[in-house]
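Ticket #4471: structure export looks truncated?
Reporter: QA, pipeline team
Priority: medium

Steps to reproduce: submit the single chain below to the structure queue and open the exported record.
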Amino acid sequence: MDIQQLIETDKSLLLALNDNDSLLWDGVMWIATDTKTWIPAVIVLLYVIFKNNKFTQGLTVLVMVALAITLADQIASGICKPYFARPRPTQDPEIMYLVNVVNGYRGGAYGFMSSHAANTFVVAMFVSLLIRSLPFAVMMFLWAAIPSFSRIYLGVHYPGDILFGAAEGCVVGVLVYLLYLFLQKKFFSRPQYVSTQYTCTGYVKSDVMILFSALFLTYFYALIAGMIVTRTLDL
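Actual output as written to the record:
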């Protein structure tokens, strides 16, 4: 399969996933794609990080997260989008009038790679490696997948944009975590935790469960808020 066939397959898959008549899911995806929806979960994440680390180490983790997001975002938006200059589905003259849009939203000119996918997956990867709890990691990657999929549903990204953005975010997340491990070994002492109250990296499991619950409640909020906001959307 050559590159042109891959592009055509990407377009066909986009149109299949974007072809919807559900007012409910229009509202849910509109809420899920909004960064502000996830602010409470981010606040809980910061609480868990600083509660389970000394202040200087917690601050280092925060700097690493900021670095990871900045790198992932700049690679996606600052390098790949202008370099590849691939129009978003909603801006592509070939299919833009076949794409269903919600609330008149069409995004910027270019879409490859998706910075939404890069940013959410870089956080999911870094934080999952940081805390090391399988149920929590599943929840984090689900969190990354939902707003990423919303970009396809809303017609502003092709599946390929999301796939490559997610892959880029995961790679950056691993690299920044390796940098964090280097700094941790050089500047911070970290005792070994053998109690079942802790994850293998020393995070209290009850604190991780609070974060797990915050993410779950955010999903529930997106569902309820989506039902409400549907009435106000320009569909």
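Status: closed, not a bug. The export was complete when the record was re-opened. Leaving a note from the reviewer for reference: The mean pLDDT is 90.
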